[in-house]
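User: If only I could read backbone structure tokens as easily as an amino acid sequence. Those tokens are not coordinates but codes from a learned vocabulary of shapes. Could you go through the record with me and say what the backbone is doing? Here is the record:
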Amino acid sequence: MAQPTTIHLRSELTPSTAKSLIENGYTINVERSPTRIFKDEEFEAAGATLVPEGSWPTVPESHLILGLKELPEEDTPLKHAHIQFAQ
């Protein structure tokens, strides 16, 4: 597990934004995280589905991946579209 830093105190999505997206027909899956600024329960209360931390590589290719962290350096091409926020 990575060392917690101030980057873990941010979130690319808020529970209220997740709720709005869900109300407009989007499916929102949120990886569980003990260090994110918003608690898992806040996303769950907003209607998001909580999924295991680090499970993004195994989701269907049609899913968009939204994240804050750097992508792993691998020789294998990424199969998903990624929207990344950097510091």
User: Anything to note?
Assistant: The longest helix spans residues 15-23. The chain has a mean pLDDT of 78. Helices lie at 15-23, 40-45.
